[in-house]
Specification:
Helix content: 55-70%
Structural class: mainly alpha
Largest sheet: none
Strand content: under 5%
Shape: globular
Number of domains: 1
Order of helices and strands: HHHHHH
Distance between the termini: 7 Å
Length: about 120
């Protein structure tokens, strides 16, 4: 990926989730992503995540890749974005999406691989 060992795709997605939470007033890159504005709004029981350890430039690259994933593969994109925005368990995410947790886990993993393929060479 051209980054240090600490900047794995998993790490970048976690940092993107924190960045997106803190920058929730800013639209994501694609208009199809507007529903995530409502998802990113804090819930009553939600705590503010730690500050992201990612630059705005890196976050925008990840953000763009996730937006493209949502256009290309809506289910995987939705599952991936929700997973990294809120860090739910797969069971909780499955309940929220009305799917079995193992299916949702596959969608998140598939989306993660898709994003990794998009960002190789960009970071």
């Amino acid at each position: 990926m051209g980054t240090s060992d600490i900047k794995t795709t998993e790490w970048l997605l976690i940092q993107w989730g924190r960045w997106a939470f803190l920058n929730r007033g800013v639209s994501l890159n694609y208009q199809s992503q507007e529903p995530f504005d409502r998802i990113r709004k804090p819930r009553e029981d939600e705590k503010t995540p730690p500050a992201p350890q990612i630059t705005d430039q890196e976050a925008i690259i990840i953000d763009t890749a996730i937006a493209q994933l949502c256009v290309a593969r809506k289910r995987e994109g939705d599952a991936l974005a929700r997973y990294y925005l809120y860090s739910p368990t797969y069971r909780d995410l499955g309940r929220e999406m009305n799917k079995h947790h193992s299916i949702v886990a596959q969608w998140v993993d598939s989306g993660k691989m898709w994003v990794e393929g998009r960002i190789i060479g960009l970071m």
